[in-house]
Amino acid sequence: MQELNFSGFVNLGLKPKQLQLIVALDELRNISKVANYVRITQPAVSKSLNELEIDLGVKLFDRSSRGIAPTIYGECLVQYAKKILIEFTNLRNELRSLKSGAFGSIKIGALTATAPSILPQSLRLLKETSPLINVLIKEGLMETLLPELWSNKLDLIIGRLAPSNETEGLASINLSYDSSLIVCGPKNKLANRKKTTWSDLEGLPWILPPSGTLLREPLEQAFKAHKLTFPNNTIETLSIQISTAYVQCSDALAVLPSSSALYYQNLGLIKVLPIELFEYHRPIGILWNAKKSLTPSAKLLVECLESLVDKNQIPS
User: Fold this and answer.
1) Residue 145, pLDDT above cutoff 80
2) What is the pTM of this model?
């Protein structure tokens, strides 16, 4: 095994262009393509790579007739180069925002099931306080957003949390608690009934959370408890938007998180049926990387969310 030249690390003084070159070499695996990408000559690419390998005392890339491939040392450097470049981008954006008079920026991961009911009001408060804060929102599921939180591409994740989210290294705040409600479209025959029983639901089409998900469990339990046949005319999705749109244009019923159901009912898009599911509450809250301090702008958004809770303006 090669011995690392630690003095090389100390004196390296890597620049963003060198980091970009390393990442490009890994992604393109061809010196000619890299030269075209970074707009320098092939000899200049080879020279930069050779100098870096000499400084570190390790071989970063293997060369062959098929191209280049990173060694274990190269893979390690590529991994850190990507992280550093992300931080450079974040720093550049933060400085630009500060220079323009803004109070920084926030990158938010919004969980699909509860994003519509939580974020708009908190962002309104945020913008009233600091209108020039730059806000980027990425909506998705926990399994897609969490890796971006770990890699610092997101500052916060906001939405309906699960016990499995209580992972070492994550910090969280619970804002309120969410249950599940059964909904239909405003033109459904059940929409204007003051009283609806479980037997009224039998035989109707449904749009359901996929089997095995936490939203599905209370519904399956309820059908068993009321000795009803579980529906077979179904569509399965976790998309609140698709579920809401589908019940509007069909006779189908759906089960939604209470925060989303009440939000869309207030807009006149759906009707919540007066039927109780088994009590099953999950927290609506905020997640962030405990090893990374929240930026001032992210802290301000957390304060706005907590303010809405104090005023009972987050539906539950």
Assistant:
1) yes
2) 0.56
pLDDT tens digits, residue range 22-36? Answer: 999 999 999 999 998
Q: How far apart are the first and last CA of the chain?
A: 59
Please return the burial class of 195, using the count of CB atoms within 10 Å of its CB with bins 0-12, 13-18 and 19+: exposed
Q: Angle of helix 16-28 relative to helix 31-38, nearest 10 degrees?
A: 140
What rounded mean pLDDT belongs to the chain? 83
Query: What average pLDDT does range 258-280 have in this prediction?
Result: 85
Domains of the chain: 6-92 (1.10.10.10), 102-177+282-310 (3.40.190.10), 180-272 (3.40.190.290)
